[in-house]
Amino acid sequence: MIVYLNGQYMPHENARVSVDDRGFLFADGIYEVARVYAGQIFEWEAHLARLTNGLRALQIEIADTAALENIADRLLNENKLRSGDATIYIQITRGAAPRAHAFPANVQPTIFVASKPFKQHPATYFTDGVGAITYADNRWARCDIKSVSLLPNVLANQAAHAADAFEAIFVKDGVAIEGSHSNLFAVVNGAITTYPSCNYILSGITRRIVLELGKTIGLPVREAPILIEEIFAGAELFLSGTTTEIMPVTTVDGRTIRDGKPGPVTKAMEKAFMELIERSAASRAA
Ligand code: PMP
Asked: Residue 178 contacts by C-beta under 8 Å, 6 or more apart in sequence?
């Protein structure tokens, strides 16, 4: 695969960053993952807006964020990804400079963009649902920044894998906040519920779409805390994310949720989401 690094296109194995890169030393950077369906980038503008907000939060200035779309498009062409499913990965760090905590002067940010084919999850994840575990939310209070500082997410997700589960749900004060790499939804009292958009979650682009699709499937949506006890009392659960899409959760901490099958709201949401993707890919291609 060809990747982009600091103005140049090169084979992935030739791409190198400095050991002084602040992404390596301090996790001083952000990233984005966008999905490509039928060769077309899905929700590009939303990903770019979130990236731009992240750069502003970190006070990293890059010359031309709009150029990232051209880079992504060129990678899709060069890597022959203009049909089928793929992902675009973008990482921007403050750049390389001798190690000192405060921002260095006159440093060029490191910009890395890659694209690769997307290997879809096994179909059974969607037809049967996946397992999740609960995990104490020990993250910082700026989870709204898509920081490459993902250690808590890595440890949580590893705990899920070790328990043969797909996702770890971060829990704080008896409230389910979000997944290690996805947002969480529960159907509570007939409303599609998810934790409010604030500094304690990464406000997912798929999450926003799910909230918008509530209208299409004719159910109210609510941004409110989901109590762990509501989950174990049998709330229908699903995850949302760029690579996770809409994924039913049917066990939590090894306990069966409801009847152990994906619920009707989840199925309706999955269908509405797939229809939206098809419409969007068709209109981008046109
Ligand atoms: N929360 C976290 C912690 C994530 O890492 C992700 C995936 N990037 C999400 C939520 C879902 O966000 P999106 O729908 O934009 O992929």
From this structure: 143, 169, 170, 184, 195, 201, 202, 204
Q: Which atom of ligand 1 is nearest to the CA of 207?
A: 14
- Catalytic positions are 146
| 54 Cβ closer than 6 Å to some ligand 1 atom | no
- Write down the pLDDT at residue 286: 82
If you measure from the C-alpha of residue 153 to the centroid of ligand 1, how many angstroms do you get, rounded to a whole number? 11
2-117: what CATH class? Answer: alpha beta
Q: In the chain, where does the domain assigned CATH 3.30.470.10 lie? A: 2-117
Q: How many Cβ atoms from other residues are within 10 Å of residue 65's Cβ?
A: 16
Computed over every residue of the chain, the mean pLDDT equals 97
| 230-258 confidence digits (pLDDT tens) | 999 999 999 999 999 999 999 999 999 99
Q: Does domain 123-281 have CATH number 3.20.10.10?
A: yes
Atom of ligand 1 nearest to the CA of 201: 1
Instruction: Report whether residue 204 contacts ligand 1, using a CB cutoff of 6 Å.
Output: yes
